[in-house]
TrEMBL record:
Biological process annotations from GO: lipid metabolic process
Gene3D superfamilies per UniProt: Phosphatidylinositol (PI) phosphodiesterase (3.20.20.190)
This protein's name: Glycerophosphoryl diester phosphodiesterase
Residue stretches in coiled coil: none
GO molecular function, one term: phosphoric diester hydrolase activity
InterPro entries linked: PLC-like_Pdiesterase_TIM-brl
Domain of life: Bacteria
Organism whose genome encodes this protein: Virgisporangium ochraceum
CDD domains: GDPD (cd08556)
Length: 214
């Protein structure tokens, strides 16, 4: 099963921990802000603040945000999944210009129109994401219409074994999230997905070890 460390690419320490745990892919959230490609899950709230659900409100000037160029320089791009956040029209074109030409990189987003900017990039592994019932309905219709995708990523509570089997017919990789507990991992196995996205590195490490032993 494919293991993806959720958000661990957003910091140097997180990247180091995830790679040390042996995950297959490290996910990073990419935003564009004032011409820079920043790594952060937090959203831009107003002109001066950043906020993340369940977190605290911080002033932008008080935090030093890592940049995508640092992540690409410090990790094997083939171990990365870059999740495009927000709807900035310049985000995808800017990312397409800095991707390595000779290494596969996974690109994920719920805003599928962005992915057209990677059509000519032979090593871009495009993942269509859905986080709502409406989004899943659109995803199924899009795949039935023949749109190619290296993978799909769907919120776990939206899936059934039948839906997963259908998605497998169109996409080589069917990923789901959140899978942060043993019970959620059991449910992911029941669904028949080919990969899990998790913030629990201990769980991913155990999963990798059990798959290796089989």
């Amino acid at each position: 099963m494919i293991t993806v460390g959720h958000r661990f690419g957003n910091s140097a320490a997180g990247l180091r921990d995830a790679l040390g745990a042996g995950v297959d892919l490290v996910e990073a959230d990419v935003h564009r802000y004032r011409g820079r490609l920043e790594l952060r899950h937090s959203k831009w709230l107003g002109r001066w603040h950043l906020w993340d659900r369940g977190g605290v409100l911080v002033r932008r000037r008080d935090v030093e945000l890592p940049l995508l160029r640092d992540l690409l320089a410090g990790a094997d791009p083939g171990r990365l999944m870059l999740d495009l956040k927000g709807v900035h029209p310049g985000l995808a074109p800017a990312l397409a210009t800095v991707l390595p030409a000779d290494t596969p990189v996974w690109i994920c987003t719920q805003h599928w129109w962005m992915l057209r900017h990677f059509a000519g990039h032979r090593n871009a592994r495009l993942v269509l994401s859905a986080g709502s019932r409406r989004g899943l309905g659109r995803l199924r219709a899009t795949l039935r219409a023949g749109r190619p995708a290296a993978g799909v990523s769907v919120r776990r509570d939206l899936l059934t074994p039948a839906v997963v089997a259908e998605l497998h017919g169109s996409a080589p990789a069917v990923l789901t999230w959140p899978v942060d507990t043993e019970a959620e991992l059991v449910d992911a196995r029941r669904l028949g997905v080919s990969g899990v996205i998790s913030k629990n590195l201990a769980l991913l490490r155990t999963l990798n070890a059990s798959d290796t032993d089989r």
